[in-house]
Structure formats: C-alpha cells, structure tokens
Amino acid sequence: MSGHRDLIASLSKDLESVKPPAGSDRVALTWLVVSGLYVVAVTSVLGPIRPNALTQPLTEPRFLLETLVGVAAIVSLTLIAFRAAVPGALSKKFALMGFGLLVFWLGSYVVGLASPALEPSMLGKRHYCVFETFIYALPPILAAFILTRRLYPLRPVQTALWYSLAAGMIPALYMQLACMYIPAHILQFHIMPGLLVGLLGACLGLIKR
Predict the structure, then answer these.
(1) CA-to-CA distance for 62 and 114, rounded, in angstroms?
(2) What is the spatial distance between Cα 129 and Cα 42, in angstroms, rounded to a whole number?
(3) Is 116 helix (H, G, I), strand (E, B) or coil?
(4) pLDDT in tens, 155-187
(5) 197 with 141: CB under 8 angstroms?
C-alpha cells in the first residue's frame, strides 16, 4: 500500500494545477453580441417592431424590469454554456443562479396572465412570430456548437442545452418589442419555441468529435 502511495506521490510531485483556457467568457459575450445583432437585424428586415415599444420600458417600470431580467437571464445562460465547455470553469452556484434568473423571467409572464406588465394589445402582431423564433435561433446555435467543440466539454449534451436555450431566448426576448404584448401569446408563440429550440439543440451534443 505504501508503495502505491509513493508511486502516486512521485508522479504528482511536479504537476501544476491546470487553469481553464483564458477568454472563454470573452468568447461567450462576443457570441452573444453578434447573435443579438443578427436577430435584431433579421427581425427588422422582415417587419417593423411594435409602435412605442422602445419608449414603453421608460414609462412602464414592470415592463422594464421584465426586459432587464430577460437580458440578465440570457447573459447568464451564455456564460454558463461556454464555461460548461471548459472543465472546472463552471460552478454549481453560478449555474443555479442563471437557471433561477430564467425561471424568474419566464415566471413573470405566467404572473402576467392575471396581471400583465402592459395593457394587452394586438398592436404589432407578427403572423409568423412562432417560426421566426425557431429560425433566428439556428445560426447562433450552430456558431456556438463550433466554438464550444474547440474547447473540451465533458458533458456535451448539457453544454449544448445551455447555449441552445440562450440562442432560443434571444429572439423570444426581442419579440417582446417586435411583436404584440399579450402574456398568453408570448408564452405560447415566443417562449415555448425558444424552449423547444433548447431541447432540439441539445441533440447536437450527441454528435461525437
């Protein structure tokens, strides 16, 4: 037994702790910014945003809070995804915090069924918003797939789920400005497609290197 301990000690004597690759957060935020700009640009090409959508956050505190929590949730999901692709870089506490923000954000729309942040209105309705959410999320998912595969995700399915959720929630959030504001519509045609994109995108994690 002592011989085994001596062998392990001799092998590990000169080993240094391995640090995660530098810049994973920077890559994550760059992906998020580019993906966000892409979603905004394509959405604008296919139709205008809801009238007064840009001024409503300034006059409706709950709507502003709802939007900011959505942004925070997406940023957290993005950082979680790219940290999950680096062994030892993602802490359980940070992952729980990001998941909590997502639940809090989505829960605000459930609360909105009874007490909406804005007066429900058909103004700004986009007839194909459910398909837009799906389609807009695909290029960011593919980009994240390529970027994270260059790292070393030990749990590729979990990593793919995180970045796919982030990609799906980007258009879901922007539809809060681009499409009509009715909580039931948001949950069914914006949030649900974003969640489904997350689950479908997780299948990318099954693809072997």
Answers:
(1) 14
(2) 12
(3) coil
(4) 888 889 999 999 999 999 999 999 999 999 999
(5) yes
